[in-house]
Amino acid sequence: MPDITDGPPPLPLKGKIALVTGGSRGIGRAISLELARRGASIAFNYFRNHDAARETEAELAALGAKTLRLRAHLGDVDAIDSLFESIKEEFGRLDILVNNAASGVMRPSTELEPKHWDWTMNINARAPWLCARAAAELMPDTGGRIVNITSPGSTRVFSDYFVVGVSKAALESLTRYLAIDLAPRNIAVNAVSASFVMTGALDAFEDGAAIRELAARPTPAGRPVTPEDVARAVAWLCGDDAEMVRGHVLLVDGGEMLGYR
Predict the structure, then answer these.
(1) Does residue 14 carry a catalytic annotation?
(2) For the segment 59-72, what is each residue's pLDDT rounded down to a tens digit?
(3) C-alpha–C-alpha distance, residues 63 and 44, integer Å
(4) Is 66 a catalytic residue?
(5) CB distance 94 to 132 below 8 Å
(6) Which is catalytic among the residues 46, 66, 88, 161?
(7) What is the pTM of this model?
(8) How far is Cα 171 from Cα 191, in angstroms, rounded to an integer?
(9) Domain spans of the chain, in order of start
(10) Which is the catalytic residue, given 16, 66, 168, 177?
(11) pLDDT tens across 25-68, in order?
C-alpha cells in the first residue's frame, strides 16, 4: 500500500530569509522564484530594469512569498551598506545569500581599459566579498548559506571573456577562503557554475549569435541548460541536505564542458 499523507509536501526553506543579488532577471530571477517555491522570503536587488524588477516582485507575491525589492548598484560600497541595512530593518536577519549579480566588458585583454577592469572586478568579485561579510553579521547562530554564481570561464578561455573570466576565477577563490573563514559560524559557502544558459546576458558578447547557438544546442544530457536547472542546484545547496558541502564549485552544464575545446 502506498503511504498516504495529509496536505502538501513540506517546504524545506520555510521561514528562511534569502537575498538574491541581481534577482530580477535571467538566472537570478529563476533562483528567486525557486527559493520562494521552497518557502523562503525573498529580498532581491536590481540596478537598471525597473519593469523586470516589478514583474519579478509580482511573481514572487503570487507564490505567497514575502518580498523586498531594492535598487542597488553593487559596484558602490555605500549602496551595499544601505542594501543590508534595509534587509536588517525589514527582516531582522538573513539566512541565505546568493551572489548572482554580475557585469563585465566583453573585450580581449589587449583592448581592455583600466576602467573596464575596475567596473567588472568591483561587481563580480569585490561585491560578493562585501555582501558575504555583511550577510554573515545578519546570520543567526544556527548558521547560514552563501552561494556564489560563477562560470566555466574561470578556468577555460572564451573569446572576449578576459576580465569576466578573471573575475569569476577570483570569485571561486573567494568561495574557498570564505568557506574556511565562515565555517566557525556554521555558514556553508559554495558556488554554482553555469555553462552557456539562454538569458539576456548573452547579448553582451560581441558575437552574440554564435554564443546563443551554443546556449541553444543540446548538451550531452540531451537538452540545453536552463535558468531553472541552475536555480535548483542553488536551492539544494541552501538546504539541510548540503550542510557538509563546503567550498565546492558545482558545475551545472549537462556535461557540456567535458567535451569543450
Answers:
(1) no
(2) 999 999 999 999 99
(3) 15
(4) no
(5) no
(6) 161
(7) 0.91
(8) 9
(9) 17-254
(10) 168
(11) 999 999 999 999 999 999 999 998 999 999 999 999 999 999 99
